[in-house]
Request: fold
Amino acid sequence: MICHLCHEKCELGLCPECMQSLSRVPKPICLYCGAPVAGEQTDAFHCDACTDRPRSFSLARSAIRSSEESMLLIHALKYRKAAYIAPALATLMAEVWHATPELRELKNAAIVPVPITHRHLSKRGYNQAEELAKPLSASLHLPCLQPLIRHNTESDSQTRLSAAQRLHNAMAAYAAAPAYTSGKKQLPPDIVLIDDVYTTGATARACAKALKSIPGVKNVAVLTAIRVVLS
Ligand SMILES: [Zn+2]
Ligand SMILES: [Zn+2]
Reply:
């Protein structure tokens, strides 16, 4: 295999040097949403955005911050059929898992990828969140399940919408699968939701809300490959 960034031979789709060179999310972070914050904040700090909004997930963390390189990777993963880079990103996500006590203690959790629409699935050939979730599930020895469904909603691209519009759209887009809400299939109390990018958190909030409509689900944590940091 060839490293997607430097084109050297490697095993994971990215070579160890390039994986090392990707910028991690800088500290300190908001302990709830994982956003990097300026200043000296430490314990129990929540950013302004989190103080105002109702919570649906317990915390969100990401492996790397948005940068030219990381956005190139996500673009390739989403639009250029480069699913082969997902295991390298999952390795970086596992590092965050092991470095975060609140995640590490979720020993009986289920890993749940954010679903995509059927249209995207047939166009892309895979769900990028699932491509991240599968190697992560294997390395953490946690089951990977798909209890969520993604409805086809009007607007596909969220990029140009305000945070409030994104949340409104996301809430309508995700739901729990009937097999889980009816109790035919079960989930453990702790869920780790997996996605490629965390932008405003609208998708994470909507999925966490849908997951909590499933009997027995108590806690949803969120882990993404990339955190969009506006600077
Ligand atoms: Zn490389
Ligand atoms: Zn926050």
